[in-house]
């Protein structure tokens, strides 16, 4: 499985619709300071379901919506679409390509879609957790995170390993069932 393309529209500094095509292997994003490199990574974390504003380097979630510049007014919505190549079948759906879309409006409303069909955040989380891309998003390793894993308390480290191994989904379902 690999990232095939990423589309940003009104997300952080990407006011205009911007489409990036990616190939298997390593992709390097280069550019001057403040040009939006980390915003691209934030967009990936966000579309994969990031819920904490801090996880996308924001104070509050609507900070991800283009805030305007001197020449350009702010926008009312942010949208990110991520297309994954699923020819390996790692994601448990019958599509060779899976596009996940997340939209946030200034009103606070959000929309999630899988291949254009509206869905819940939970559907995206469950789809991705089968591929080892869980809620904690250990697929994105940011600065200082390796140290944090090494220094974590054993029970926290266990959670990280469980998430990577795909066990957490079942624990979550079990907890949900027990609460009923
Ligand atoms: P560095 O090399 O310093 O790490 P970078 O390329 O990673 O830089 P980013 O952090 O991705 O840069 O981008 C920062 C820019 O994004 C800033 O200019 C900031 O004003 C802009 N930005 C962030 N959020 C928004 C927003 N909601 N609306 C408009 N611009 C935004
Ligand atoms: Mg950066």
TrEMBL record:
Signal peptide positions on this chain: none
Compartments in which it is found: Cytoplasm
Residues annotated as binding ATP: 32-39
Function summary: Required for chromosome condensation and partitioning.
UniProt note: domains: Contains large globular domains required for ATP hydrolysis at each terminus and a third globular domain forming a flexible hinge near the middle of the molecule. These domains are separated by coiled-coil structures.
Protein family: Belongs to the SMC family.
Subunit-level organization: Homodimer.
Protein's name according to its UniProt entry: Chromosome partition protein Smc
UniProt source species: Ilumatobacter fluminis
Residue span relative to the full protein: 1 to 180 of 1159
């Amino acid at each position: 499985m690999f990232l095939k393309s990423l589309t940003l529209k009104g997300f952080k500094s990407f006011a205009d619709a911007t489409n990036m095509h990616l190939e298997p292997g390593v992709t390097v994003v280069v550019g001057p300071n403040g040009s939006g490199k980390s915003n691209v990574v934030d967009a990936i974390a966000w579309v994969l379901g990031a819920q904490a504003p801090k996880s996308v380097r924001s104070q509050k979630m609507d900070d991800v919506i283009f805030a305007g510049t001197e020449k350009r007014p702010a926008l009312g919505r942010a949208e990110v679409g991520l297309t994954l190549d699923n020819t390996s079948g790692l994601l448990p759906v019958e599509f060779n390509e899976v596009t996940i879309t997340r939209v946030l409006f200034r009103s606070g409303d959000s929309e999630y879609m899988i291949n254009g069909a509206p869905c819940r955040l939970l559907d995206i989380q469950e789809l991705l957790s089968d591929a080892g891309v869980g809620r904690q998003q250990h697929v994105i390793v940011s600065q200082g995170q390796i140290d944090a894993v090494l220094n974590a308390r054993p029970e926290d480290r266990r959670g990280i390993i469980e998430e990577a191994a795909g066990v957490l989904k079942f624990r979550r379902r079990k907890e949900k069932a027990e609460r009923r």
